[in-house]
């Protein structure tokens, strides 16, 4: 597995030399763009609209636009020095928190950590301490010229770094248009919706989820490569109708779920008080 970063993780006075490896990979199928007439790949050139000429990499500088068409030029040497200064610092765990305290909207990308030379014992110590306490570490680190806020946690037997967004990088949910305010929901509709959720509840098995589009695209590519006959289409799911009656849609969904999963065993929910009222409502709906 390719090493993309080497450094030190520290908590208190404990330092752990580690290597970092990408934990995920992009499986998207990349398609090239060709000139339709001669089937030659298209080139993308960097040009200056003012000079009307192609610009080479050595003639490009980086700058920050602080106002319209007003720039602060930043030399490569200045940027490298600043980057080096941050990279030389140990990745220090600032705080320890509970994983469930962090909303998934903050999570960005995952990396595996492996111990570097001489770091196995301290690595194992941190892993066991995190596992036994059920805590995760919050740290800062430099990755690809950006200071990242990160979570350090245990996944199976490995320590994992999860980069997370800073609070000011998460847009305010109040800016989302057309989010309805609290509306009164009919009890019958709510009970049926809960029953539908229970019927579709199962254990999470990531292996059963496949990228159907990527599979179909690769099959198409292979067929064309082998000059085989291509048949695209077949059965497709009907487009959903506009919901006219919410209760009817819920009930029909529940009926289909029961038919498709007659043997499904929902995860047991904790027993709550006043179950008699809910049971009565449930009998009334399904009768």
Automatic annotation (TrEMBL):
<dbReference type="InterPro" id="IPR009187">
    <property type="entry name" value="Prok_Ku"/>
</dbReference>
<keyword id="KW-0227">DNA damage</keyword>
<dbReference type="Pfam" id="PF02735">
    <property type="entry name" value="Ku"/>
</dbReference>
<keyword id="KW-0234">DNA repair</keyword>
<comment type="function">
    <text>With LigD forms a non-homologous end joining (NHEJ) DNA repair enzyme, which repairs dsDNA breaks with reduced fidelity. Binds linear dsDNA with 5'- and 3'- overhangs but not closed circular dsDNA nor ssDNA. Recruits and stimulates the ligase activity of LigD.</text>
</comment>
<feature type="compositionally biased region" description="Basic residues">
    <location>
        <begin position="264"/>
        <end position="287"/>
    </location>
</feature>
<protein>
    <recommendedName>
        <fullName>Non-homologous end joining protein Ku</fullName>
    </recommendedName>
</protein>
<comment type="similarity">
    <text>Belongs to the prokaryotic Ku family.</text>
</comment>
<feature type="domain" description="Ku">
    <location>
        <begin position="52"/>
        <end position="181"/>
    </location>
</feature>
<dbReference type="InterPro" id="IPR006164">
    <property type="entry name" value="DNA_bd_Ku70/Ku80"/>
</dbReference>
<dbReference type="GO" id="GO:0003690">
    <property type="term" value="F:double-stranded DNA binding"/>
</dbReference>
<dbReference type="InterPro" id="IPR016194">
    <property type="entry name" value="SPOC-like_C_dom_sf"/>
</dbReference>
<dbReference type="GO" id="GO:0006310">
    <property type="term" value="P:DNA recombination"/>
</dbReference>
<keyword id="KW-0238">DNA-binding</keyword>
<dbReference type="GO" id="GO:0006303">
    <property type="term" value="P:double-strand break repair via nonhomologous end joining"/>
</dbReference>
<feature type="region of interest" description="Disordered">
    <location>
        <begin position="254"/>
        <end position="287"/>
    </location>
</feature>
<comment type="subunit">
    <text>Homodimer. Interacts with LigD.</text>
</comment>
<keyword id="KW-0233">DNA recombination</keyword>
């Amino acid at each position: 597995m390719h090493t993309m970063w080497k450094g030190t993780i520290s908590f208190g006075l404990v330092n752990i030399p580690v290597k970092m490896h990408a934990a995920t990979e992009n499986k998207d199928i990349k398609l090239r763009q060709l000139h339709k007439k001669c089937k030659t790949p298209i080139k993308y050139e960097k040009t200056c609209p003012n000079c009307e000429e192609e610009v080479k990499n050595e003639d490009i500088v980086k700058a920050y636009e602080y106002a319209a068409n007003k720039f602060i030029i930043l030399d490569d040497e200045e940027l490298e020095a600043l980057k080096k200064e941050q990279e030389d610092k140990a990745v220090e765990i600032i705080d320890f928190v509970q994983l469930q305290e962090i909303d998934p909207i903050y999570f960005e990308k995952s990396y595996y950590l492996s111990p570097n030379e001489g770091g196995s014992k301290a690595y194992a110590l941190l892993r066991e301490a995190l596992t036994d306490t059920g805590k995760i570490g919050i740290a800062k680190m430099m990755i690809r010229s950006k200071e990242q806020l990160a979570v350090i946690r245990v996944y199976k037997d490995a320590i994992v770094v999860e980069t997370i967004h800073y609070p000011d990088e998460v847009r305010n949910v109040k800016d989302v248009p057309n989010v309805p305010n609290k509306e009164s929901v009919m009890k019958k509709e709510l009970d049926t919706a809960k029953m539908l959720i229970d019927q579709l509840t199962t254990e999470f098995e990531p292996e059963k989820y496949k990228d159907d589009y990527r599979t179909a695209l690769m099959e198409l590519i292979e067929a064309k490569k082998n000059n085989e006959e291509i048949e695209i289409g077949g059965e497709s799911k009907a487009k959903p109708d506009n919901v006219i009656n919410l209760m009817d849609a819920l009930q029909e969904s529940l009926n289909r779920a029961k038919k498709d999963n007659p043997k499904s065993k929902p995860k047991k929910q904790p027993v709550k008080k006043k179950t008699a009222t809910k049971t009565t409502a449930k009998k009334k709906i399904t009768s």
